[in-house]
Amino acid sequence: MTVTTITDAQLAPKDYASDQEVRWCPGCGDYAILKAVQKACADMGLVRERTVFVSGIGCAARFPYYMSTYGFHTVHGRAPAIATGIKLANPDLDVWVMTGDGDGLSIGGNHMLHVLRRNVDLKIILFNNEIYGLTKGQYSPTSRRGTRSPSTPLGSIENPVSACAFALGAGARFVARSIDTLQAHLIATLKRAHAHRGASFIEILQNCVVFNDAVFDHITGKEVAPEAQVLVEHGKPLVFGKNKEKALRLKPGTIALEVVAATAPDVLVHDETNRPLAQLLAALEPPFPTAMGVLYCSPTESYEHDFYAQKGAALGKGDLDALLNSERTWEVVP
Amino acid sequence: MATSSISRPERETRDSVVIRFAGDSGDGMQVTGSQFTLETALAGSDFSTFPDFPAEIRAPTGTTFGVSAFQIHFGGGDVMTPGDAVDVLVAMNPAALTVELRDLKVGGTVIVDSAAFNERNLSKAGYARNPLDDDSLARYQVLKFDITKLTADAVKPHGLSSREAHLCRNMWALGLLLWMYGYERTATIEWLNRKFAKKPVIAAANVAAVNAGHAFGETAEMAEHMVGYVVPKAHVQAGRYRTVSGTEGLAWGLVAGLRAAGIEKMVFAGYPITPASALLHTLANLRAYGVVTFQAEDEIAASGAALGASYAGALGVTSSSGPGIALKTEMLGLAIATELPLIVIDSQRAGPSTGMPTKAEQSDLFQAVHGRNADAPLAVLAPTSTADCFDIAIEAVRLATKYMTPVIVLSDGYLAHAAEPWRIPREADLPRFPVTYRTDPEGFHPFLRDPETLARPWVKPGTPQLEHRIGGLERDYDSGHISYDPDNHARMTKARADKIAGIANDIPLQGIALGADHGKLAVVGWGSTFGAIHRAVQIARDESTDVAHIHVRYLSPFPRNLGDLLKRYDRVLVPEMNNGQLVKLLRAEYLIPAESLPKVTGKPFRVTEIAQAIGKIS
Ligand SMILES: Cc1ncc(C[n+]2csc(CCOP(=O)(O)OP(=O)(O)O)c2C)c(N)n1
Ligand code: SF4
Ligand SMILES: [Mg+2]
């Protein structure tokens, strides 16, 4: 399969917006994600008719309605399966899966696991607001212990799943994290995901102003961000802090990370092809800084590529008469 | 051979015969039956087969639950079923004898391997005494041979281990049966040489076993017991024939349908489940015919991938059995809401829940017709025979693509594995119904309806200027945009219903399989019970009973004359392999007092069961 890249350089971000009124709550982080995606599409010159946004159900999953591309709003949790079928039918389409933490990690967790391990060539964008938005605020599989919600009035007693650690565990070859409000970073991360062939998984920390407002403030707040985030970049040291004065390195004699002065010896340099390192970064949580950016990128052939490249796999118009007459036949004469 | 001078009695003629090969799962009864079937076919007889294998993959040897059987009914007439009662039972061990004997006719023949009736096997089968040594089989004609030793002797020159030699016993038995009915061995020998091409010694030993079994019949010195038979050729339409199983019929029919519709690719997505997996296996080998197969992580994903493929312009097909179809339910709703073609093949099995996976039932009719949330109509078809599987698959493709709708095909575990002779169609004679994908942006919206079929346009993503969004949310009739307007929802619900109902104008009127178009009694069936009902009605009519056979292939919507037709009979009897489902649909739809004849044993109807029911009514 040859991937021909056709671009449409004339289009502006607004040309990727559909004529539908956007119906998210005012102030919802989804707006920022929509804006970033439209900007990334314009920057990359994506051809609208060859681009398909597929989603499950949830606030996040409304996304396709707001794009002027092809879009398929499907059933709760199953977008990865539907997108897989689309890619098997037409590997040339540029297919994005837009999902939420409930959609992608609860009801659709199984499909997420398999689409990642198969490495279907999809951009999978998971809007993590640590809550079920559309159903009015129940805790989700990414909600932290103690989360109070209509269904957990005393606080959740469940351990949350880390989206990125899950994706890495499932065998994803591209795993990244960003934030709704971190526009430039988010746009750059979307472009990286798009450039990657195979399943590209991005977790976006997204603020649900109505049911889980400020849940990421300790990471995303302007004041705390420099200390609370480490922006990872391939080949660059893993430094953070207001003046980039802090760094991460392997605690000697262990396989755990520790925070040291940026000037300390053996500061880690980010290697996005290093899966164990990606696992360590994905799992970082306060008091450590939360890792943002491309945690892991190690391309291999995609599922559809391998399907069509398999020996004897050429799809064709075989001789039907030969098929029907294969094996033993006999003639009955009048 | 030197002993060929023994004078044999003349071969006797039999109109039709039912043989059941039974043995341990490891005894190769299925291949034995299949090869016997092939030789029967090549000799020009009509036939119908019924493989009945155990649910366990490798049941302990010698146990009753490890018995695997293959039944073939063959003859010169119109053979419609695998046969009610068995004429010849081949029992390779005591377990096979005890399990299968009850279906043997009084006076029927049992052929046993006496060596297998040792103490160990007898006790595993629950025999206190060896039935070969007392008079418990007195009502039957017992032919006991030391097949184990006779096979070992035959294969000796090939230097097989005793285990390998033991595995050739089935071929010895096959050779004997082929002799008994005067059949050739050529195709079997060819098959063995092909199958064991890489193990020529094994091939030669198996051929020697077939030949030895055959020679044994020819020369056995027990002439009065060993009668040879002749079964006449069937009078069938001229043409080229082959055997076909329901699975093959469906697979090839889907391929033919794909071609008829002019669609480039089929994406078939499934998740393994008995007895539906065979279809996935068969299609996995047909890439050269434009078939992409995908083993999904579950049935939900399988139906999702198939629907995604249809959305992308390919033919999406998914298949399962009852429990898996249940999982596809929500996706069917989405397919109905978004009006995309989707073919769902249900190989029904006994349930509820896991039920009896290897046993056939017709109990998913309600699930197919009504088993979804909300008002969610779709088309439901059911093939009547293995040969009809081919035609019904083509018809499913036609309806799915023409009406942009899911179509459920109700096959069953019996049809999936059974085999019958099939007159091979030529591609040039197959129907054509090319689909058109919408490419014209002028006046486009995704739910514009064809005024005649009410179908919406099929648009391939990739088509310029037709970018649009669809989904499960209700949409406006006039624009396709999301709409929660109450009147619009009522209008859309009606449009979806009318579209499916309209299919009734595009399918054949309900015909009468046998008998008059009015009278005292109509026996109405659907699916794989065709043969048994037909034969039973034939027998009753031969005895001057006023009865007709009607077999419904289109279960949703029903053919438009079905109600009027049924009202022309005084009584309507509905035999089905469930607890009464079609009967309730008919009552609900036509307000007729249809009567139920349910059968839920996991086994197909016997002709006599239906004949008796007809007798009671008329
Ligand atoms: C089969 C099914 N079960 C439940 C629902 C109800 N439901 C809709 S969205 C949703 C949760 C969505 O949460 P998430 O994926 O986190 O998306 P968000 O709304 O937070 O963006 C649920 C439970 C549904 N639509 N379908
Ligand atoms: S409920 Fe939350 S996630 Fe949903 S639209 Fe409103 S703010 Fe956004
Ligand atoms: Mg959420």
SSE layout and pairing:
The complex is a heterodimer of chains A (334) and B (618).
Chain A: H1 29-44, E1 51-55, E2 70-73, H2 79-89, E3 94-100, H3 101-107, H4 109-118, E4 123-128, H5 163-169, E5 174-179, H6 183-195, E6 200-205, H7 217-220, H8 225-228, E7 229-232, E8 239-240, E9 246-250, E10 257-261, H9 275-283, E11 290-297, H10 303-309, H11 320-324, E12 330-332
Parallel strand pairs in A: 1-2, 1-3, 3-4, 4-6, 5-6, 7-11
Antiparallel strand pairs in A: 5-11, 8-9, 9-10
Helix pairs in contact in A: 1-6, 3-4, 5-9
Chain B: E1 12-13, E2 16-24, H1 29-42, E3 46-52, E4 67-75, E5 86-91, H2 94-100, E6 104-113, H3 119-124, E7 141-145, H4 147-155, H5 162-166, H6 169-180, H7 186-195, H8 200-219, E8 229-230, E9 239-245, H9 246-261, E10 266-270, H10 277-284, E11 291-295, H11 299-311, E12 315-320, H12 322-338, E13 342-348, H13 365-370, E14 379-381, H14 386-403, E15 406-412, H15 413-417, E16 419-423, E17 469-471, H16 486-502, E18 519-525, H17 530-542, E19 547-551, E20 554-556, H18 562-566, E21 569-576, H19 582-590, E22 595-598, H20 607-617
Parallel strand pairs in B: 1-8, 2-5, 5-6, 6-7, 10-11, 10-12, 12-13, 13-15, 14-15, 18-19, 18-21, 21-22
Antiparallel strand pairs in B: 2-4, 3-4, 9-16, 14-20
Helix pairs in contact in B: 1-6, 1-7, 4-8, 6-8, 7-8, 9-10, 9-14, 11-12, 17-20
The structure holds thiamine diphosphate, iron/sulfur cluster (SF4) and magnesium ion.
Magnesium ion binds at residues 58, 100-102, 129, 131-133, 140 of chain A.
Any overview of this molecule?
Chain A is of the alpha/beta class and 334 residues long. Chain A has helices at 29-44, 79-89, 101-107, 109-118, 163-169, 183-195, 217-220, 225-228, 275-283, 303-309, 320-324, and strands at 51-55, 70-73, 94-100, 123-128, 174-179, 200-205, 229-232, 239-240, 246-250, 257-261, 290-297, 330-332. The model of chain A is unreliable at 1-5 (pLDDT under 50). In chain B, the strands form 5 sheets. In chain B, strands 11-10-12-13-15-14-20 form a 7-stranded mixed sheet, sandwiched between helices. Chain B has a 6-stranded mixed sheet with strand order 3-4-2-5-6-7, sandwiched between helices. The longest helix of chain B has 20 residues, at 200-219. Chain B is globular. Chains A and B meet through strand 2, helix 2, helix 4, helix 11 and strand 12 of A and helix 1, strand 9, helix 9, strand 11 and helix 11 of B. Strand 2 of chain A pairs parallel with strand 17 of chain B. The complex binds thiamine diphosphate (TPP), iron/sulfur cluster and magnesium ion. Magnesium ion binds next to helix 3 of chain A.
